[in-house]
Amino acid sequence: MSGEVTVTGFGVRTAFGTGAGALRRGVFTGTPSFTATTRFDTGPYRTPMAAAAPDGPDAVEDWALRHALAQCGAEAVDMAGLPSDTKGGGTAGGGTAVLLGIAGDSTSITRHWRAADTADATGTATGTAADSAAERPADAVPARTADAVPARLTELLAGRLGLTGPRLTFTNACVASAAAIIHACRLISSGRIDAAVCAGGYLVEEETFGKFDSGRALSRDGMVRPFSADRSGLLLGDGVAAVVLESAEHARRRGARPLVTVVGWGAATDAYHIAQPHPEGVGLARAARQAMRLAGDPDGAALGYVNAHGTGTKYNDGAETRGLRAAFPERAESIPVSSTKSTTGHLLEAAGVVEFVITMLALMDGVLPPTAGFGRPDPECDLDYVPNQPREADLRRALTINAAFGGANTALVLERP
Amino acid sequence: MTTEKLEKTEKPVLRSPLGILATATATHGTGRDEDIPLPRLPGFVESAFSPLAYEVSRQCLTERPGDGSRTAVALASLMGDTTTADLASARVVSGQVHNPLLFMQATANSVLGYVSREFSVTGQMFSLSTLDDPVTELLAMVDLLLEDPELDRVLVLGVELGGGERVAAAHRELAAGSDRPAPPLPPASGLAAAVLLGRPGTETPVSVRSAEAPVSDRRAEAPESDQSRPGSIQGLFDLAAAHRRLLRDGGSHLLVTEPDARRGPAAFVLSTDTEAQAPLRAPTDAHAGRNETETHAHQ
């Protein structure tokens, strides 16, 4: 690595609310945020449960995702003290990059087809752009069908933040925002750019909820119980977060305080199945080993915590456990591992960046977030999962892992300054 | 009509030259002579997205087999699999039962996973959405990824589907304020192109490097087409055509990408000239002009 990568700011929103305080009160106390969602009619589905903020149906109106991204992005930039490029800030690398992990706003697709369905039934003309009469924030731009285009959300965020550097949108499902962070680390460490805002977002909506329900992936008992013998699936959750990454030199020149340093990253593919993880966690182990090699600690001797992908599905958790054992054959049993999806739900494209923030907080606070909902131990999940209660720990380094459809895996190693 | 020049102050997209190992293109339902029937992929239904992505990947990885553990994959598609998204959504709003297969294939990860399994590719894989020219974004990503000592090759591909009213409406909104045309592709049609790249060497008779050359005013004379549409993968088709021609005839080719709102057009020199495979120096205008055989602006 030619340039050290630091994190100087973040903004985050989950079902617990906005900011680090909300995460500390929820994730770090092991309090699940699942409720029966009222955002849409859950009657047709096997469960009504999700970690959706109790902010009414407007939470998935056309401006909601854009607004949440802009809010978290602004908080991250404010915390970092990073000036906008358009106000004379800028960086030697030609502007701050904006890299997003997101699938686009699916609500615009639903609205289009709902309008078409209504038009068919009534014989009226079909509308394309959403015609929501919901109350909008003052700064919300009009509803757009194009918000289903992932790259458009990146452009909007960059415009709102006044950042003029490279823009790229990662759409690779549950590793998307982790992939955006990894890409930013590569760009910064190679000296191509000085700074990047990396973000991701998903807000619970019917389109995706229905798909996961059809795949019988949702938990049957209204809880997510990662690594537990009685786990029965995942639940979706609201998650939006942004982080400011910059070279240590750039942060030092600005007088910005590094919160954590990103010392390793890796990504690898299972080459096994389009929707299931490799049963031995082969790709996950490979990604973790890459990240640890880059961090100069291939055996994980300095690793004090792993924020696992931990979806609470039968397929994932055993495979992930075996993958961690393969990555750290000498140390796996002594490294605490927890899944914060047990409290936040699965945040899909946003999982990487929100769990990155949670891992940062664990390092900054010296507290391990627990795996909530942990019941009976599963013989195939035999690591230390920090069950149900937070734990104090003097951490120096932590690893955060994500996995996705198609066998994609990512790993990021964070270090306390 | 103006002569556009690359901004001399802009950094070149590529730090080091790349070698082209293979290229492939495929179209379906477009009415073009080269349209193909979709290959059948177990577990994938209704949409041309995944079969076309698989087909161009298969062609490249079969033509130039290599170490899958040292191969990465990046797929660019502005809107992704719109056919699957629309089918699934239409079912939701009409109260029909979801089709789990549409769930499985909704993300490009699924077909990338299928490709990775078929060809034992275990390097990282990404899917991207960009409003900019995918050629520039993908080549820049390859250049970056190949600095990773654990990677030797990167397969990049672009996929674009025709669509109905929703897709057209999205394009109209993206093009608002400009005269960019809506996509000309009919519903159920699709395009895909792939390029397998490594660093230049004996196995890569054609290399590609950044050019810092004035863009000929022939670019401005290029016939109007859908070339300026956000995220259009036409540039990948142009790159593949240039690669085929250079393999046959030798010489060099200047490929100029579409400018975006923040920067001017990027330009790349494709060449069979071994001189071009030396470490990249900032090329002079004269150097680029000497090698230039043709200027394309994704027509």
From TrEMBL, chain A:
| UniProt KW Secreted keyword | no
Question: Which UniProt keyword terms apply here?
Answer: Transferase
State a single Gene Ontology molecular function.
Answer: 3-oxoacyl-[acyl-carrier-protein] synthase activity
Q: Where is the composition biased (Low complexity)?
A: 120-132
Among the GO biological process terms of this entry, one is: fatty acid biosynthetic process
Q: Where is this region: Disordered?
A: 120-143
SUPFAM superfamilies per the record? Thiolase-like
InterPro entries recorded for this chain?
Answer: Beta-ketoacyl_synthase (IPR000794), Ketoacyl_synth_C (IPR014031), Ketoacyl_synth_N (IPR014030), PKS_Beta-ketoAc_synthase_dom (IPR020841), Thiolase-like (IPR016039)
- Locate the Ketosynthase family 3 (KS3) domain: which residues? 1-416
Which CDD domains did the record assign?
Answer: KAS_I_II (cd00834)
One Pfam family of this chain? ketoacyl-synt
Keyword presence, Transferase: yes
Q: Which protein family is named in the record?
A: Belongs to the thiolase-like superfamily. Beta-ketoacyl-ACP synthases family.
Q: What is this protein's name?
A: Beta-ketoacyl-[acyl-carrier-protein] synthase family protein
